[in-house]
Amino acid sequence: MLSHDQDTDESSDDAFASSRRFRMVSIDVFRGSVMFLLLAEAFHFCRVAEAFPGSRIARWLCYHQTHVPWRGLVIHDLIQPGFSFLVGTALAFSIASRKRRNQSTVGLLLHAAWRAAVLILLGVFLRSMGKSQTNWTFVDTLTQIGLGYLPLVVFALLPRKTTWIAIAVILLGYFAAFAVTPLPSWDFEQTSVGVPAEWPHWEYGFAAHWNKNTNLAANVEHWLLNKFPRAEEFGFNGGGYATLSFIPTLATMLLGLVAGRWLRDFAYREDESPPTESPSSDDGQLEIESRGLAAMRLLIAGLVCLAIGYALDWSGVCISVKRIWTPSWVLVSGGWCFLILLAFHIVCDQMGVRRIFFPLIVIGMNSIVAYVATWILPDFISSSLETHFGGLRTIFGEGWSTIVSGSVVVLVIWLMLFWMHRRKLYVKI
Predict the structure, then answer these.
(1) Is residue 66 part of a domain?
(2) Residue 171: partners with Cβ closer than 8 Å, 6 or more residues away
């Protein structure tokens, strides 16, 4: 749906025009940063690193633009948890906005169900591009968020303590379900599930419960996807991703909901409509003190999540794996999300530094368009460059031509988003 006005969760100009302190620019900037990392795939830094083997910067950029094979994380691995976390963060503002407009609980739930269905189908559509038939897979970022979105809204409407209970139940239940799943027999051939015989990331002992394509999520994936029409039987996911990850992804979104509540509660008074006049000096002091409390909570939550998550990973009790969204991954990635949001909150919301983040705000305010664009436009733009300005490799060389092409791709997509932003055109689901 194309709109000139949006709820606060989409963070349009109109939504926050009445007051500086009613706008959380940090959410837009964080979301824009996440989407920029996705857009930056157009730079193909690993190709650049091959062209410049002596460049440490190119190797570092390549390393952080590829997902880890299994355990651990790099910057690129934080894209999906960042986007998921921010869905919960924005929901805290969206629910408050809709309640101020006296939308009923039934109306909220119907809207959530509609949004969930669209996200799921849009994810399937994008994954089916270039396929001979519908590619029924549910591991796309949008699909994973869609599968957990309705429960997320339900928890957002329940008393707040249920959010923490839900996070604990999800993490402990997911851990227990994997832990009790029988391991393969001793003579099992891991190559039969797409894992190389000498794969260095294969775990032994208790950690083996989270091995690639031999875990609970992989078993469910094999059963589920073969229920849908397919050209051939589904055997395993080459990357080890699984539909069942939407359950712990819900926990990530709930952590984001907690963060959003803290920001919203301590940015302005719960029972107060957005102020229409400049706040008094007393109100300004209250705002400073309350936002300091919100920042402290974000800091503590981030450090606690990181401490517990890394402890579980390092001990081998529950290794941190994004591809199956293990409980320790929820805590590690959630901890980083808390801290990143805290940094943007301090700089953008408290210190008021916003102009330098304008390019990211433009991306963050139309994140769905940006996400879809990364699937559709890069190849088209790159091929058009070759068609109309052929010989880039001859002119610039292999490495620099890749950077030039990637820069044009990112610039064209950003200009499209900027055009929409100037006309206050925001796509929301």
Answers:
(1) yes
(2) 248, 251, 327, 330, 331
